[in-house]
User: Fold these one by one.
Assistant:
Number 1:
Amino acid sequence: MSADKPPRPVIAIVGPTASGKSTLGITVALRLNGEIINCDSVQVYKGIQIATAKVPAEERQGIPHHLIDFVSPEINYTAGDWAREAATAIEEVENRGRMPLLVGGTGLYLRALRRPFFPSPPTDEKLRQRLNRIRERRGAEHLYCVLERLDPEMAEGLYPHDWPRVQRAIEVRLQTGLPMSEQMNLRPEPHESARRLQIFAVNPSRNELYERINARTEAHFAGGLVEEVRDLLAKGVPPTSNALGAHGYRRVVEYLEGRRDLASALEQTKLDVRHYAKRQLTWFRREPGVVWCEGFGGEKLLQERMIQLVAP
């Protein structure tokens, strides 16, 4: 029998927004010679700063961060794009003899790494603009009903307000003539690191999490969120882009377009982010093999337990 050591695991730290994942990731990286690979679908974008809660460079304590702040907000960066680049980043970190730590709350990104998506057709910009106009006129729920007719199996796994993915599923169906749910069976083999992936989810008190979300949202609005979005729109970032469609941004766009007042934008954003946190928890509970860690990522007890769990 071989005396070789078992393959070193690839660690992912996930959980709901505002749960302290970034703090936990930096703590683990400091103790275990790690580097962080961002796994948040909004933190990939340059210039999208305030509502993403990106850790400022001066607070990263010297820990390298990858796949963060590197995509133009005009680009609709996909989970498939991230999975391909994350696989490369994992290889590069391990080649340096360090531990890769995937940190973030976008479950679809991890799923794309574990189960790569099928080769989807390029975006048809005319079709996308048409769907955007329908969504703006009739709402995201209407598009979800369209998807339920075109691809009920795909619709079952999505939420009505997750309109970027709902729209993409409609696009694939209309462009190829086949439901995305059927085409997903044509997946390529996952990167070898996917077989070594171990997922640890931060699981804080729900009431305290919601309090933190409300307080953080108020701080974002007070800290210049409206001005940030106004500047992005002035620079030509489409209001229908994935970046500005994210929670924390879409209601500010509606305010700037005159579709709601500022107080409504603030309160609806709080509700959006709370709902998003709930969906994140539900998503990770459905994923196989997730280890749940009670508490917030900034708590010393959770940090020590996490280090014990992942230490080689």
Number 2:
Amino acid sequence: MQTLQQQYKTHMVPQLLKQKGIMNLMAVPKLVKIVVNCGIGDALTDKKVVEKVSAQLGAITGQKPQVMRAKRAISTFKLRAGDAVGLRVTLRGDRMYIFLTKLISIALPRVRDFRGISRNGFDGMGNYTLGLKEQTIFPELEYSLVDKVRGFEINFVTTAGNNKDGEKLLELLGMPFTKAVQDGRQE
């Protein structure tokens, strides 16, 4: 069985070359990286939250998260410069494709009443952001690790220059977008 990365190289690249009429192989849109972000505002009151969420994100992505710190102090939020406010994991190469396969084939179908993901998360340059409301949809996460249901966002960074090309690339990779709406009804 071919991995998603092998399928991209053998089947999807020739298909994109043909559909877009691209002559140069290097001009084909590709997925560069996947960035997983998680905000941890309650780390200001409980310092162990950083360790717990870091262990959860590490189990989900297979990579140790980077702690994001506040750049400046905000007194109304009782926030000091240097306090931990979030975690980030940047996936590239094999780990990126493994995570994408796991997200598409295992995690997203486990979302309750799942009908596909919205097409509204594109930024104009072909990159896509997907927000998830809970981390428990990933099967490798043990329930003993989960202290609180937390959401996070997943950013898909592509080399596509526009939303249409980025959407086509993610569709070929298997992203389950909702059906397009035309004339007030779904196709």
Number 3:
Amino acid sequence: MINAYPLQFNIGSIEVTGFGLLMMLAFLTAAWIADTEGKRLGFASDYAGDMVMGAVVGGIVGAKLWYVALYGPGALFDRSGLVWYGGFVGGTLGVIFMGWWRKVPIRWTMHLMAPALAAGYAVGRVGCYVVGDDYGRPSTLPWAVAFPEGAPATTAAALRNFGAVIPDSVAPGTILSVHPTQLYEVGLMLIAFAVLWRWRLSPRGTGWLFGAYLVFAGIERFLVEILRAKDDRFFGALTIAQLTSIALIVIGGAVIASLGGKGTLAPGIWLEKGAKA
């Protein structure tokens, strides 16, 4: 059995967690990738920072509000309570707002953010692993991991609450190994990033790349949900995340179909000159 414990330490009176560090690194990674692509295209560097600011504020607020919507007002102060789809929606709205403020065509925002989102998500999921959150169902595979101090710990009782079928002979407090679904997502989204990074050179219409990202993100999450320890299967065999994944795939396909043949769009003054405009 592989045991994984939360990464955390103190700097004076301040507690630093691995989740917080990886979330910060995820946003910085996304900013660096978006800025790198902007530089390749000859754009001013100001906009990458603007997008990250919108994503950070909107993403954290959205992730928390989605969690509260699922588990009730008392979940507002749950430290581990962040839901990716809520973060995605909130972060998207935050980035759209920044683009509107800077008068950047939304299609260029979509292009710059597509590979950045995939890479940032992969880094962020490492944070979920180091805090012991969002793990999978019980597993006996060689790479299965136990989280004795996870959020919550992978006890038989906790996994039963998530709908896992565990023999009655297993005591409630028994620590079990589970699928490290966080790491599965890291691997899948790094593959998605590699593909998107190559496809960004495609001569297709500005913004179509974001549609491809939505399709990849939807497929990845739908598949991983099959192995997740979840208690929100309110729609038969499908979780809320799987239904949302289907919606993302459909929307992504529509974006590809509508923007794929529209050619390159003028970037606008802010992307061309930045703060000097």
